[in-house]
Amino acid sequence: MNMGAVGHMKRIKDAAKVARHVMENTKHTLLVGDGATQFAIQMGFKETDLSTNYSLTLWNQWKTNCQPNFWNNVRPNPEKYCGPYKPNPSSKSKPTSNFVDMKNHDTIGIVAIDHNGNIAAGTSTNGAKFKIPG
Question: Superkingdom of the source (predicted)?
Fold first, then answer.
């Protein structure tokens, strides 16, 4: 089975196309971070600013109160404060809620089968908005 993937690639718009180059032009299956970005540039992809006025507005609104966020069992209370956070000294965990829904997540998946039965699949995601980096 052939596969190629990229992760945490910055300033490159066409991640799925770069992933195909990983599959077709390397012996690797995954390139991540600055290495993935540099690989994309080497393969002829152009760096571009991926921010839009809308995304910058959302980011600035979120920075005002940091809600929703993905911190749990930390202090100060992540439902009221923006951090920095430290682990709670208590060993008891509070139940968590899932902030990921159709409005703050943008994953797509595609699967195709040709007339010979060959299968191709792809996915692209930025993950949940305002998640903890990493």
Answer: Eukaryota
Asked if omega into 84 is within 30° of 0 (cis), the reply is yes
Catalytic residue among 48, 107, 123, 125: 107
The gap between the terminal CA atoms of the chain, to the nearest Å, is 28
pTM attached to this predicted model: 0.76
Active site residue 96: no
Rounded CA gap, 20 and 5, in Å?
7
Residues 11-47: tens digit of each pLDDT? 999 999 999 999 999 999 999 999 999 999 999 999 9
Q: List all residues 6 or more positions away from 52 whose beta carbon is below 8 Å from its beta carbon.
A: none
pLDDT along the chain (134 residues), means of 10: 94 95 98 98 98 92 86 92 90 61 74 95 82 80
